């Protein structure tokens, strides 16, 4: 994940969420709901319940994005990442976040959360192996393109800030499947926690309780791990 510099944020503020840039983006609008792989990970009420800081775990891993025509986005991610040096230390993450997106005039996309996102991290080899915490990171996608797949229809390609591709996303619906476009979780009483190795995390009171009691166990789906490997940022959260 990538925290944007101020200059990039200022540039994004001048962009319109309705603007298209080249013919490659015009196969279909970016608005709607998109999902990777087996398409079992889908944004909306079937994935996350922000008020309870809980998730409904899909049958397979993957990622889903939804974009509305008035500039809102929502992301659902479910991933497991293996560790080559410690094969038993498989890290699982489940993420929900939403906010506002901007299509920048240089062809990039900026996703800015509204502040109520959260994630569950399960790391069996860490001191705290399973917990829920706040997740609110601004993301930059360097570019995007939508092609017409002969079998699956519109296919969205997103490229991260460093140019690396996100798993291809297929359109589930031309209209977005989203939770309400407002702050959905109480984050006014954040608790700052310093871990034993000196790293700092921020949680709500509810997340802190879940962290001490243990979040529900993630059940790793059968089959290959879908999507990209969990980014290195996860290691700073443990």
TrEMBL record:
The keyword Zinc does not apply. GO terms for biological process: 'de novo' protein folding. InterPro entries: Rot1. It comes from the Eukaryota. Pfam families: Rot1. Residues 1-17 form the signal peptide. Keywords: Endoplasmic reticulum, Membrane, Signal, Transmembrane, Transmembrane helix. GO terms for cellular component: endoplasmic reticulum membrane. It is found in: Endoplasmic reticulum membrane. It is a single-pass type I membrane protein. One of its GO terms (molecular function) is unfolded protein binding. Its main location: endoplasmic reticulum. PANTHER family: PROTEIN ROT1. Belongs to the ROT1 family. This is Protein ROT1. It comes from Mycena albidolilacea.
